[in-house]
Amino acid sequence: MTHLVLDKVHKRYGEAVAVREVSLQLTDGEFVTLLGPSGCGKTTCLRMVAGFVKPDAGTITIDGVDITNKPPYERDMGMVFQSYALFPHKTVAANVAFGLKIRRVSTAESDQRTKEALNLVQLEHLADRYPSQLSGGQRQRVALARAVVIRPKVLLLDEPLGALDLKLREELQIEIKRVQSTLGITTLFVTHDQGEALGLSDRIAVMRDGNIIQIDTPTKIYERPNSTYAANFVGRTNLAQVMVRKADPQAGYLVEMVDQPGVTFEVAGDQPQQFLVGERCSLAARPEHFDIGSTDGNTVEAVVTDVNYRGSIWNVELLAKGNWPVSAQVRPGGRVPTKSETVSLGWHPSRSFLLKLSDDEKI
Amino acid sequence: MGNVVLRAVLIGAFLFLLAPIAMVVVSSFNGVGVFAFPPQQFTTRWYREIDPGYYSALYVSLVVATVTSIIATIVSVPAALALARGGFPGRNLLSSLCLSPLMVPALVTGVALFQFSLLFWDVFKVTLGGTITGLVIGHLTFAIPFGVRAVLASHTRYDLSIEEAAESLGARPLQTFFQVTLPILKPGIVSGAVFSFLISLDEVPIALFMGGGSATTLPVKIFTAIEISFGGDILAVSSIIVAISVVAMLILDRFVGLERLFMSKQ
Q1: Residue B130 is assigned to a structural domain of this protein
Q2: Given CB atoms, is A79 within the 8 Å cutoff of chain B?
Q3: Using an 8 Å Cβ cutoff, are A19 and A10 in contact?
Q4: Same structural domain, B147 and B35
Q5: By CA distance, what is A151's nearest residue in B?
Q6: B149 and B239 part of one domain
Q7: Which residues of chain B does A75 touch, with a Cβ-Cβ cutoff of 8 Å?
Q8: Which of A122, B93, B101, B171 is positioned for an S-S bond with B176, CB 3.0–4.6 A?
Q9: pLDDT at B264
């Protein structure tokens, strides 16, 4: 039963604040991702949990025990690095057994557990190789086995897929998830890749400038981001400036386009924030939620500006009334519009959501 | 065609570099006389006629080279780590200062050391000149920079997260140092040690100023002997030095791999 808690953890480097009073709780077996661009403080957070960076303020506890000032080697964390960080002078098996040797686990048990761990990542046949003889994906699987074989309290993953190419990244994502759920190990994962975050996490913490700006399940983060920043960072979002005309807790909102008075849309479903009548805000919708040619729900007239084939879908770029640029998608089998064609763009009211204007959008 | 030319040039270059050494070794077995060419009679006479003084000089040389190499290695590993990783002010200055003895002519270093030994005697009444200690101190002036350079070179592609991985797996700093850091830096450390040993072994200018008497090294002994007479015994002694150098290189090749060693040099 591992319960990891970060309480108002703060870290400064000179004048620059890397992490601003971040609080975060991981329950037993939970997979939580810190998602954000480089420099948002996500790696610093992870390294503070690992013990490589000492926070200026705040506490980190595991199962109620304060570990804030414990050195890394007393924390029982399994860590996987972007650069693999395997011991180049040791074989695969010796790499995996390293933590067990340090813990003075008997040879018989160590051999057994090393074998099991390599089995778990499907690399038992490479036990006698050296890291330099392995591919990037294999190396990272060795690193994963090495991290979990010590049965750590928490598994820390620092951009483990960052150095791999796309196909391997997808394979290893599945591998990581499988290992993590098989062992039921509490995991903190750091990435800047929204796809990885959505695919792996129980919860995602979106970070910006050292703050966690939203923490929720992947579906909530994707469907109801609470800020333009989160909406843009996770997936593509079409934003239009609107004015709230009606606000009803049950029926939802009625909004009017600022640049095209008279054109109104309905917005239904839970919203992460409250909006008042007369308030200016952003209407947001994901590309895959538009239905080209539909006359149901909200509709707006739009001109097709570009059509791109992407294999599994068609990307359609449009310019809707009120100079609103929209990216939409057509799935195979649907009618693909031609360039310059005028179409009706429709979407269900619950598929769109409202966002508060950020400070720079207000100007 | 181009390949043939390239090969010819390569063979020519090797001949140019190795022929003099080969000639020394071949001539040392020549029974007719040192300068007779081609060599005519095989003999080991010159080896038997080596003056016992050469053996004691060889002993001095080996002791000095071994002690120099060991001290240089022990000093240069922490020094190189500090220079490569430390965040202290003046690190770059210290780094170039540490390597500067390699840029000063050995003759100048020798004069400076001679002066130092005089001063040392004035202040502490301890003689350094003409002692093995003095020779070791003299040779350390280039052996340490050499060792530092070699370790620094093998540190350039070092990934610090490897040590973090060890720590996260429960290794204390000392365990991490001995089980992870040292083994990874081993090629640089071994090459620094072997090169320090070899350079100390055939160094003349510093040994000329700091040595003498019972602390005469083999190169100095040969150097001074040649001024009087140049005979087969000197060729035999030189051949022995060649043999020692070859053995040292073979050890290096076995432990590190010469190719890898020179590839990793920056």
Answers
A1: yes
A2: yes
A3: yes
A4: no
A5: B169
A6: yes
A7: 168
A8: B171
A9: 42
Q: Are B25 and B123 within one domain?
A: no
Q: In this predicted structure, what is the pLDDT of residue B46?
A: 80
Is A87 within 8 Å of B170 when comparing Cβ atoms? no
Give the C-alpha separation, A55 to A9, whole Å: 6
Asked if A73 is an interface residue toward chain B (Cβ–Cβ < 8 A), one would say yes
Give the pair of three-digit tokens for residue A57: 């303020």
| Interface contact B167-A71, CB threshold 8 A | yes
pLDDT > 70: what percent of chain A? 98
Any B CB within 8 A of A76 CB:
yes
Does B232 lie in the same domain as B186? yes
Residue span of the structural domain in which B2 resides: 1-43
| Per-residue pLDDT at B249 | 81
Residues of B within 8 A of A52 (CB-CB) are: 164, 167
Residues B161 and B196 in one domain: yes
How many interface pairs between A and B have CB atoms less than 8 angstroms apart?
A: 68
Q: How confident is the model at residue B266 (pLDDT cuts 50, 70, 90)?
A: very low
Same domain, B151 and B228: yes
* Radius of gyration from C-alpha coordinates of chain B: 22
Residue B134 lies in a domain: yes
Both B136 and B23 in one domain: the answer is: no
Q: Which of B161, B169, B184 sits opposite A89 (nearest CB)?
A: B184
Whether the predicted pLDDT of A129 surpasses 50: yes
pLDDT at A1: 63
pLDDT of residue A57: 94
Contact yes or no for A205/A35 (Cβ under 8 A): yes
B168 → closest Cβ in A78, A86, A89 = A78
In this prediction, residue A186 carries a pLDDT of 95
Domain assignment of residue B48, yes or no: no
| Domains in chain B, number | 2
Contact state of B170 with A143 under an 8 Å Cβ cutoff: no
Which chain B residues touch A86 with a CB distance below 8 Å? 162, 165
**Is residue B75 situated within a structural domain?**
yes
Query: Is the confidence at residue B265, as pLDDT, over 70?
Result: no
Residues B81 and B130 placed together within one structural domain of the fold: yes
Q: How far A93 CA sits from the closest chain B CA (Å)?
A: 15
